Structures are given as C-alpha cells and as structure tokens.
Amino acid sequence: MARPTSATIHIDALRHNLGQVRLRAPGSRVMAVVKADGYGHGLERVARALAGADAFGVAALSDAERLRAAGISQPILLLSGFDEPADIARLRQLQVDTVVHHMSQLQMLEQADVGEPIRCWLKVDSGMHRLGFAPEFVREAHARLSALDGVVGEIVPMSHFASSDEFDEPQTAEQMRVFGEATAGLPGPRSLANSAAVLGWPDAHAQWVRPGGALYGMSVVAGTTGADFGLRPAMTLATRLIAVNHVRKGSRIGYAATWECPEDMPVGVAAIGYGDGYPRAAPAGTPVLVAGQPTQLIGRVSMDLMTIDLRGVPGANVGDPVTLWGPDLPVERIAAMAGTISYELTCSITRRVRFVES
Ligand SMILES: *Cc1c(COP(=O)(O)O)cnc(C)c1O
C-alpha cells in the first residue's frame, strides 16, 4: 500500500488569494512569485492556477525553463538575475526578463553580442544590504543599461524590504525614502512590495507588486495567520494513523525518551516525519488534528513517524486521518512552534509526499 502522506493543493485558494492581492493593490500589476517550486506547492501547478497574474517571478533560470516548457506565456522575471554570459543567450531565447543587481552583470550585458534584446529590472539596495546597487550608483547603472542596444522596453527600478512584516517598524518607510531619492526622475514603473507590503504598506504598492507568500495564503506577520488578512491556505498536509497503542503511566515515548506518559493513555502513530518535510524542531505540544479533533504531538518527530496524544480523541482508530496543517490548522502556528516561518515549512515538503489537487 502507498504511504498515506499527502499534500493537497487548493487551486481555488490560490485564485482567491490572487483576487485578494488585487483588491488590496488595485492600481498595481501583480507579479506572482513562484520561486522554490511555488513555495513548495508545485511550480507548474501554481502558474496554471494563477494564470490571471500579470507576470511570474522565479529565482532560477531552470524554473523559467520549466514555466516556458509548460506553455506559460506571461512575462517571467529572474529575480536574482543571471550568473554567466551563457545565461543571457538563454534568457533571450526563452523571452525571460532579468534583474540586474550588480556591476558584474552590467559588464556581462555590455560585453554580450549586440542585438540580444532583453528586458531588465534594476535592483536598488534601499537598505536591506543583500542584493542591489547602492543608491549612489543607481543613476550610472540606469544610464549604462539604457545605452545598450540589446536592452529593450522600460527599465523597472525595484527594491526589496527587510522588515515590511512589522507594520510599525520605521525601516520600511526609510527604505521607501532611499529608493525614491535614488530613482527620482528616472522613467518607468517601479516595484517594491512583497506580500507583507501588499498587506501593510499601501504607499509602497507602486506599479508592480511582487507577492509570494500571500498567494499561498500565508502570513509572515508575527502572531497572525493568512486568514487574518482574508487569505485562504493553499496546502493541506495530511496522513493517517498507522497504529494506536495503549501505553502505561510513566512509560516514555520515542527517541531519547523525552516524553513521559502522565497516566495510562492511548498514543497514536502517524505516518509522517522529517523525511516528509515535517519539522523535527516541532516540540511536544505542537497541534495536530486527528479525525478533525485537535490534539498534539508528543515525543520527538522521527524520520518517518510521529507520536500523538490521543487522550482527547478517545474513538481514534488506525486509518484515521491526521492533519498537520491546512485550512483548519494554520501552518503559521506550526511554524511558530518549530521556531521558523510558514514559508520554510511548505518549501520543505519532500518528494516522497504525494501531491494532489482539490
Ligand atoms: C521572494 C521574493 C518576493 C516575495 O516575497 P513574499 O514575502 O513571499 O511575498 C518578492 N520579491 C523578491 C525579490 C523576492 O525574492
């Protein structure tokens, strides 16, 4: 029998979330960010579901190749830009746009064969200090890009926020100010907003928003879930109980015997573990649903299995469904228990998990 572990991707939720982004940023075009295999939801599946997006953003040229092979015809932007001259020819063949964030990329473009038309977004480091031209080099970079015969269309100045998930943190307003100053007077549309800025920083929406997480129904705003912003989770991770055992008071459960039964009790064993992408860091007490009833995991998460407190689910049987996250159990809660963010959890589902759509 096949392992009962599955990730169900809710196509309607993806579409609903795109609609919510459009409602919140009515004046902006939407680039759906589908990097990391669509935040673990499946690249081609997500792109088809979000066919209403104005463009797609990817982090790897191979993802752009997959999208074109799947017949996706919208603009695609390579968010970190190209690594070597051969990539430029490939981008051109695929009609994929690129971010230019570094002098080395600008030099490669200048040395590339003339007549290679390519569209460019110019990344400005407005204060995150990861990728982008320092503000004082933005005008020079823009002028050099504009001068290239091979660069067509409007250059889109863009930047990325470090702290937009904290709605009262001054860094975002400061980044907007730095970006505005560095790009003042340059032509073309602008793009700044990730999901959190779509939700909490309307002044940053500009002509293009670039949401990722929000489209999958996830929030990175501490203490909130996607539902708090009208979003619907796009993934349910589920499995089944493969054993129900009656364990005596004082017995210890699992590796390193970390959890001791406070009474005689039923313990469920579910067919999911860190080998499926469920976080090993999730401690005892992390919520799970058994047959829709809330309870908690106990002991350590192992590679293939986890153990579950069934005292609150007295009728539980082998074969009962176990939900790890989904619309009835926000992935943000699990992430908080595991000391990470929801994005990392959905990105970490491994290949042995069966993906289905609903
Ligand atoms: C990942 C990414 C986004 C999307 O971020 P979310 O928080 O998922 O909305 C937007 N822009 C860039 C450059 C990114 O790398």
Automatic annotation (TrEMBL):
Residues 234-358 form the Alanine racemase C-terminal domain. Its cofactor is pyridoxal 5'-phosphate. InterPro entries: Ala_racemase (IPR000821), Ala_racemase/Decarboxylase_C (IPR009006), Ala_racemase_C (IPR011079), Ala_racemase_N (IPR001608), Ala_racemase_pyridoxalP-BS (IPR020622), PLP-binding_barrel (IPR029066). Keywords: Isomerase, Pyridoxal phosphate. This is Alanine racemase. SUPFAM superfamilies: Alanine racemase C-terminal domain-like (SSF50621), PLP-binding barrel (SSF51419). Its EC number is 5.1.1.1. HAMAP family: Ala_racemase. It comes from the Bacteria. Catalyzes the interconversion of L-alanine and D-alanine. May also act on other amino acids. The active site is at K35, Y255. The lineage of its organism: Bacteria, Pseudomonadati, Pseudomonadota, Gammaproteobacteria, Lysobacterales. The modification N6-(pyridoxal phosphate)lysine is found at K35. Belongs to the alanine racemase family. Signal peptide: none annotated. It catalyses: L-alanine = D-alanine. Substrate binds at R130, M303. Pathway: Amino-acid biosynthesis; D-alanine biosynthesis; D-alanine from L-alanine: step 1/1. GO terms for molecular function: alanine racemase activity.
